[in-house]
Write a structure and sequence with these properties.
- The complex is a heterodimer of chains A (351) and B (341).
- Chain A has 351 residues and is α+β, with helices and mostly antiparallel strands.
- Chain A has eleven helices and twelve strands.
- Chain A has a seven-stranded mixed beta sheet. In chain A, strands 9-8-10 form a three-stranded antiparallel beta sheet. Chain A has a two-stranded antiparallel sheet with strand order 1-12.
- In chain A, a hairpin with a 5-residue loop joins β8 and β9.
- By secondary structure, chain B is of the alpha+beta class.
- Chain B is 41% helix and 16% strand.
- Chain B has a seven-stranded mixed beta sheet, sandwiched between helices. A three-stranded antiparallel beta sheet of chain B has the order 9-8-10.
- Chain B is globular and about 55 Å long.
- Classes of the chains: A alpha+beta (351), B alpha+beta (341).
- At the A-B interface, β4, β7, α8 and α9 of A face β4, β7, α8 and α9 of B.
């Protein structure tokens, strides 16, 4: 995992950050439980090293509260349900509150029936999508999540129009005495914020990530921001996944699609929870999980690679490191967060 | 190159299987899967496998008379024991159960173990779509071919994923792909033609990038699609297809079969289905109308290439190279069956 060393770094203990983040959302009018949940979820992304979904998102969230897109006191409701399915109406609450509620419903139904699918609409940005399968895995179940994103920046395979969001997919499974396997990635070739970082540095990117505004392959990240196109991961395969996410998270939830209209609100959510004991004696299943993870980690690594990881290891390593030494922020990001906090009358220094 | 009509190919293959002692209905079911793959242009999963299948019946690996049994089930789940009958029979039964349960309860997940090779998996999600439902399939493979991201040993198979959604008035959206960067069959084709492959497909035995397909067969590795992303997808397939079903995983030395996991969803449990399907139609129409980039005639939906191949092969016959055709003729002769012009 590479760290950006362009700016001075500071290290902040997680307890102080959780408190700070909670106070920011309290300052913005969220009820105490909501403020704590949303604040801590953003801090957790930073803890995991997923900076794009960290506390800096409070800047965007405060703006959305101001413009009325996020209703800080709202609570999701169940629009429709059956034994193993539900559709949640997010009521424009914080996306984190909506997706957590959807995951809790999925857990309860899957425990009873073996599998459950829960969709949500009227849902704001849910933050790090891996958080919800992780919640399901923490309950001893297999979790799967798809979220369609509304910012149309990804082109279909072979096409010249930015139609899709980066449409992430996440999957988590408990592993005994270990962190869960945690898969969480954008189905585009790369996340847009990573292009921004490389563009700021003047770095080149591999061919196959973007096209320039004329539809020609480019290794210059600026070409994306100058009217270019982001490509799906793995060409037609990622394109297929982008469509799958759009159909299940966007259309099945009733949220809508950035392909069809630019006006959809926030994230459409699609969650599956599966209870392994409906298929096998769960101790046997989890024993296999333990062996699978051990076999993968024992793979001889390539020349320049320290060790073969399983999905979730990078996050676990970042968390262990930052729990010990404090969570890392570059000065520029930190100043922006302080400013945003100030706009709702909150200072970092704890009196 | 031979061009064989799909009907004749289906009939010939069925007679060969029957000659090898396979019940006619089972033979027809298996041939439906193989001929469909050829029609769709997926040669690697077509009748090129017929001789191997016949051999598997003869050596007892396939129990052609067996039927899958249900080991356990709930309103929305089931686990099947394939009892080592043909994988196509197991997968079809698993999908039928998933469809019935999803129609009643909105969602279902059905897993299967002790299944022989199931063939091209898109056929099963397509079954769900043809019944007005959304289908997902995860099937783990038997052969160790793929290295984990950053690794230098084969741990995974090509572990495919499939997804289908009905499109009213058209063919379903059909996505069916290996989570490796390409199917192993493409390496075989390149090797047979003495062609190079693009960098990023394989590593040689030392773990260095290579464009020589022979390096793969000399102990090299196939790579996951999109690096860590495909690696993650492949693990997901290994868990859902292999471990949840109890089929096992090749890397654990316990997967002589295709472990299956099928998920079926009934849209009307979430939204009025006419609204949902109207949106799906608009999505497909909009994407197909995307201005294409240089080198592309038009933007396709997943399933369009298969539809085009099918139209072409229905008209002109299924193309089979001489080697493949001869192995089928030979397989027939061994059980006393001749091709009839």
């Amino acid at each position: 995992m590479s760290h950006e060393r362009d700016h001075p770094l500071l290290r902040v203990p997680i307890e102080k950050l959780n408190d700070f983040a909670t106070r920011i959302f309290l300052g913005a009018g969220a009820p105490a439980d909501t403020a704590r949940f949303v604040g801590e979820s953003l801090v957790k992304s930073d803890l995991y090293g997923v900076r794009s979904h960290g506390l800096q998102l409070c800047i965007a969230y405060l703006a959305r509260i101001q413009s009325g897109l996020i209703q800080p006191s709202a609570q999701p409701t169940i629009a429709h349900e059956s034994a193993a399915t539900a559709r949640v109406n997010g009521q424009r609450a914080f996306g984190q509150i909506v997706a957590e509620r959807a995951a809790l419903i999925a857990i309860e139904k899957a425990r009873q029936h073996g599998v459950a699918i829960v969709c949500a609409d009227n849902c704001n940005h849910v933050g790090r999508i891996g958080a919800y399968p992780e919640l399901i895995a923490d309950a001893g179940l297999i979790g799967f999540a798809l979220v369609n994103a509304t910012t149309a920046i990804v082109a279909p395979h072979g096409g010249l129009r930015n139609y899709f969001g980066t449409n992430p997919l996440a999957f988590a499974v408990p592993v005994p005495n270990d962190h869960p396997i945690l898969i969480d990635f954008a189905t585009s070739s790369v996340a847009a914020n990573k292009l921004r970082v490389l563009s700021n540095k003047g770095a080149k990117i591999p061919l196959g990530w973007i096209l320039d505004k004329d539809g020609m392959p480019s290794d210059n990240p600026n070409d994306f921001f100058d009217g270019g196109y982001l490509l799906p991961m793995g060409m037609h395969k990622g394109y297929g996944l982008l469509i799958m996410v759009e159909v299940l998270a966007g259309l099945l939830s009733g949220t809508g699609s950035s392909v069809l209209a630019k006006s959809a609100l926030g994230n459409g959510v699609f969650l599956i929870a599966i209870a392994p004991e409906f298929f096998r004696v769960s101790s046997e299943f989890y024993d296999d999980m333990r062996r699978l993870v051990a076999a993968l980690r024992a793979t001889p690594p390539l020349e320049h690679v320290d060790a073969v990881l399983v999905p979730g290891d990078p996050e676990a390593h970042a968390a262990a490191d930052q729990l010990r030494d404090g969570i890392e922020y570059d000065d520029v990001t930190w100043q922006k967060i302080l400013q945003a906090a100030q706009s709702v009358g909150v200072a970092f220094a704890v009196a | 190159m031979q061009y064989i009509s799909p009907e004749r190919l289906h009939d010939f293959g069925t007679r060969i299987f029957v000659g090898a002692g396979v019940p006619r209905a089972v033979a027809q079911r298996v041939m439906q899967n193989l001929v469909r793959a050829n029609l769709y242009g997926i040669q690697s999963h077509g009748v090129v496998r017929l001789a191997d299948y016949v051999h598997a019946v003869q050596n007892g690996r396939v129990h052609a008379d067996a039927q899958p049994t249900i080991l356990n089930e709930s309103a929305v789940t089931a686990l099947l024991d394939g009892n080592w009958c043909f994988g196509q029979v197991v997968a079809e039964r698993a999908m039928q159960i998933a469809i019935a349960k999803a129609k009643a309860n909105g969602v279902a997940i059905v897993c299967a173990r002790n299944s022989n090779h199931v063939g091209a998996i898109g056929e099963y999600t397509e079954m769900a779509a043809n019944d007005g439902l959304i289908g997902l399939a995860f099937v783990n493979g038997v052969g160790l071919l793929v290295a984990p991201h950053g690794g230098k040993a084969r741990r995974l198979s090509t572990n495919p994923i499939a997804f289908s959604v009905p499109v009213p008035g058209g063919r379903p959206i059909l996505m069916d792909f290996a989570t490796s960067i390409v199917a192993e069959g493409k390496l075989k084709v390149a090797r047979n033609k003495d062609a190079k492959v693009p960098h990023g497909w394989i590593l040689n035995q030392q773990g260095e990038p290579s464009d020589d397909p022979n390096d793969f067969y000399a102990g090299g590795f196939l790579l996951p699609v999109g690096e860590h992303k495909g690696y993650g997808l492949s693990i997901m397939v290994e868990i859902l297809g292999g471990l949840l079903s109890g089929a096992g995983a090749a890397m654990l030395g316990s997967a002589p079969s295709n472990g299956c996991c099928f998920v079926v969803i009934a849209p009307e449990f979430f939204r009025p289905s006419e609204e949902f399907f109207e949106d799906v139609c608009r999505l497909a129409d909009t994407l197909r109308a995307t201005p294409p980039r240089d080198g592309f005639e038009s933007v396709l939906m997943p399933g369009d290439p298969e539809a085009r191949a099918q139209a072409e092969h229905m008209t002109h016959g299924i193309p089979l190279d001489d080697v493949t055709w001869q192995t089928i003729i030979d397989a027939g002769r061994r059980v006393g069956v001749e091709y009839e012009e």
